[in-house]
Structure formats: C-alpha cells, structure tokens
From TrEMBL:
Residue sites binding FAD per the record: 120, 233, 510-511, 539, 550-551
Keyword Metal-binding: no
Signal peptide extent: 1-24
CC cofactor: FAD
SUPFAM superfamilies: FAD-linked reductases, C-terminal domain, FAD/NAD(P)-binding domain
This protein's name: Glucose-methanol-choline oxidoreductase N-terminal domain-containing protein
Keyword Signal: yes
Similarity comment: Belongs to the GMC oxidoreductase family.
Gene3D superfamilies: 3.30.410.40, FAD/NAD(P)-binding domain
Amino acid sequence: MALGWCRFFGACFIGILFLHGFCACDRAPYYSFMLNATSAPTISYYDYIIVGGGTAGCPLAATLSQNASVLLLERGGSPYGNPNITNLAKFGAALSDPSPTSPSQRFISEDGVINARARVLGGGSCLNAGFYTRASPEYIRAAGWDGRLANESYQWVERRVAFEPQMGPWQSAVRDGLLEAGVLPNNGFTYDHIKGTKVGGTIFDRDGNRHTAADLLEYANPGGLTVLLHATVYKILFATKARPKPVAHGVVYRDASGAKHRAYLKRGLKNEIIISSGALGSPQLLMLSGVGPAQQLRAHNITVVLDQPMVGQLMSDNPMNAIFVPSPLPVEVSLIQVVGITQYGSYIEAASGENFGGSPQRDYGMFSPKIGQLSTVPPKQRTPEALAKAIEIMNNLDQQAFQGGFILEKIMGPISTGHLELRTRHPEDNPSVTFNYFKEPQDLQRCVEGISTIEKVIDSRPFSKFRFDYLSVPQLLNMTASAPVNLLPRHYNSSQSLEDFCKDTVMTIWHYHGGCQVGSVVDHDYKVMGVDALRVIDGSTFNFSPGTNPQATVMMLGR
C-alpha cells in the first residue's frame, strides 16, 4: 500500500493545494461605477488614478472616492458571475486556465518554481488560500505605521471580508499536535499575530462563499469612483520640461479591443497617480514608464525618465514546503485554519480534504499536466506522450489516493532576495524574476526547524488516528520529494537531509513581494523618490512578508 501512495502522491498533492483556498462569493453586487474599458472616453480627467484593482487597489479606491474623483484601472475582469471563481466545486479551474482572459496568469521564476499572479478585480484575494491574519505589532512599528490607524483599518476590512472558520476533526488534530509539539501557548481564535498556536480568520463565510478585496468597493462613493475592467496600462506619462524633477500627470491604457485611451490628472497639488499592480506588475510598470535601471531600460529602447537602479531589486518569495500525510480515516475538506507561529521563524499551517481532485474533470489547477506542468521531467522532455500518460494516471486514481492532508511550513521574511527584469515592452508579458530561495543559510535553517516541527505533529498523540502506523516520517518525506512540485533538479534521497528536502521540494505560497521597497524606491509615505505625483501602494513595497499571510495587511495598507 505504501508503494501505491508513492505512485499517486504527485496527483494528490496537486489537488489539495487548490482546495487550500479558492472560490468566490456568488453574490454579484451591482456596482454602477464598474464598466468595461471599451466604454471609456478616449481622454478623461480625475483627481486620482489607481493602476491595479487588486488587494490594495480596491480598498484604496473606495477610501479616496469619498472626497475625490477616482479612476481605478484593472487589467482583468470581474470576479462576480465567473463560475470558475464563484463556484467552490470548480476550485482550481481558474488557476489551470492558461487563456489570456484567465483570472490567473502563470509564471515560472528563474529558480524553476511554478507561480501565479492575479488578473482580476480583487487581485490575489480571488485566488489565494483565504487565510486572514494581521501583522504583528512589531512589524507595524518597524514599518512606521500609526498603530491606532492600522487597527482601525484592519477593522474596516474585517467588517466586510473576515470570518471565523468552522473547525473539523483533522484541523483540530493539527492544532492539538502543534501544542503537544511545543508551539505554545494556545491562543484560540484570533486575527492577531501572536507566538504560539492559533485559529486564524478566513475570507470564506459559513456558506463557503469567498469574499474578496472587490467586496470592499461596497464602501465606495458611487459618484466619486469609476472602475474600468480589461484596461491594461502601458505606461505612466511624465511632464519633464521646465521642472526640477519629472511629474506624473497621466497614463496610457488600452481596452480589450486594443483601442488606446489616455487618462490625466486634474489640476491640483494633491492629485496623484498610484500604482497598485502587485510585486511583479508595479516594478514592471515603473520600468515600462522609464523609471528604473537605465542600462536595462535602454536595452529595451525605453526612454529613461529617471535612472533608479533599485526598481525590481530585492524581490523575495517566502519558500513553502509540505509533507503529505495519507489518512486511514476520511477527513474534512479544509482550507488553512490553524497556524503555529514558532519561536524560530517558521509558520506551520495545514489543509485537508477527502477528494482533492474535486471536479468531474479532475483538473488540478496550475500543477496540472493538462497545462504542461509535469515537473518530474525536465522541460525539454515534456512531450505530448509524457503529458498524456500523466493525465491518464490522474484520471484513473483510486479515490483513496486523495484521502489525507498536507501540513505546510512557510518561513518568515525571507532574508534571501533576488531581482526582476523586463523581458519585453508589453505590460501583459511576464517579466523575468529570480527569488533565490534559500540563498541565505538562515532561511534554510528555519525550513529545517519547521519540517522538524511538522514531524513532531505527525508523531503526536492527537494526530495519531489520521496517519498509518506503517508509514514512517522518512517514508512520508520520500513520498513528498517524489511529487511534481517544481522544476528544480532533485537529490536522490531527500529524507537523508532535511536541508536537501527543503531545497528539492520548495514551492511558493504566493506571498512574493519587493521590487519597490520603502527606502529604496519609495519613501515612508510611499511616494516614488525622484519624481512627483506618483506613489506605489501594494506588496511590492514590503521588505518582509507581514504576519503569516499578507492579504489582511495589504488590504489594510490600501485603506
């Protein structure tokens, strides 16, 4: 039987990460201010122009609309009414959709790790695992934020999108196993970031409907906001003549038909353009607009507005590693609910399900061979025959191969950083990004300690009924190491070294950040240094990922 688990492990891994947190509220609010960009005038004027209707852009637009005219430009579509987003039973369908109109845009870092970026109103909150938790007070102080204002802003977000999850037996066993493993104290249910074990919040309500950052537009003043969908911004326009430094005064964008539009700032000292396009999109747009490393810009024939060598630098992605534990008992389908916040800088989370294949089509999201993700072989060996074989195996999996759960660890920080570079001048093309996972030894050590803690949870008394006695932890590690989770070369036997296990099985938990960091590209008011009337508000400004999961803090920052 153990051999059977090893054979089918790759497919059961695939399914669980996507049930780990994706669907959307099927209630479609009527936003009178939400329009297709094809209906926009060729030229328009606003007090504020926000580029990117994601996790930060939506709360930002809702807030500014109370006292100003705001244009929010989103390159993707609406999350409402899309069954691949709104229907829990179709979870993973959006992430496996490779079409140009998909709400998820896949990319592979130069490290070889498969990743995704959002292309939908609401951003990553439409695609993520749903876990909601605040940053620590220490993080807020280090960021220079006003603690009282941050707390009020978190509460503003939580009134619309945050809920207490319903705990089932498997998640309860993980929680109790963490406590037995020494991740103390038991902090119960809380949104706060506190060392120990806790149940965190979720953006899924009790009916299983996802609530996203797009729901925060319910706060908006309809008379002060225009949201344009399928509006891809090509560049920021700067006025440079007779000025001490360049001043952002407009944007060029195209609608779905390819028609070009221009939006300009009205006259006013406080009027600004704000980029909220995410950790890939924000540095990319700055570069396309002429703000970035001059040598790289000239290589793409981009006119240099400001030589800013730090744009696209200090990119980070929090590495995530997991151990799959097959269960002799059926387990509840659960998203991330419990987190162990350890003393040594690793966060332990878990997800489970009885059938991670879920849909009748057995589509396994962005890890699916159906879209070419067959990382058990090098890219050049991914022949149609190899893909067809992998799809056939998954389509014929025994139901029991999906019974169990994953216990995950994500390291804090991280300390390791990389960089982002343009590949083309087209804003819809992914830039090249390198994260340098585990380049810094302390990151690797945190992973090792995290995996060691997971081993203790698996061996704990509370978790004992959810594991097979004859499958040792080294066997579980070997099963995990044989799964198709990335494109990196593998060591022969990862169970011999937890360091090798961490490097060989590294995945993303989609918490990448950096590229426009405070102190390097923007100042502490998030104004782009060296130009006027331009800010960046999103995760690209973070030096480290906030809390165990960043979405709550990104929404708070937008507010």
